[in-house]
Specification:
- The chain is of the alpha+beta class.
- It contains six helices and three strands.
- The C terminus is likely disordered.
- Strands 1-3-2 form a three-stranded antiparallel β-sheet.
- A hairpin with a 2-residue loop joins strand 2 and strand 3.
- The radius of gyration is 17 Å and the shape is elongated.
- The longest helix is centred in the middle third of the chain and has 13 residues.
- Keywords: DNA-binding, Transcription, Transcription regulation.
């Protein structure tokens, strides 16, 4: 997925809360849904979108689907942001003051 789609997915507060809740442990869809005052269908929509952009992964164990963060996508975003702090652009901005 593109960086634009990934950043758009992160822009939603519910999806950010889902990502926060997955920071320390895998969780089933039901465990995630229990944290919100939303319908199961709405939470499923958010999980599907986060999976499509690669921010989370899913795995099936028996009758349950568990979700985990995909750390490599976050590393790519951080690398992209970090690149703004170095290179010719940052040295030119200091020289123009």
């Amino acid at each position: 997925m593109s960086l634009n789609e990934t950043l758009k997915a992160i822009s939603d507060p519910v999806r950010r809360q889902i990502l926060e809740s997955l920071k320390n442990q895998s969780q089933s869809a039901g465990e995630i849904a229990a944290q919100f005052d939303l319908s199961q269908a709405t939470v499923s929509y958010h999980l599907k979108l986060l999976t499509q952009v690669g921010l989370i992964t899913s795995r099936k164990e028996k009758n349950w689907i568990y979700y985990d963060l995909n750390i490599s996508v976050f590393e790519e975003i951080l690398t992209w942001i970090y690149n703004f702090s170095k290179g010719p652009e940052s040295s030119n901005s200091e020289g123009g003051k």
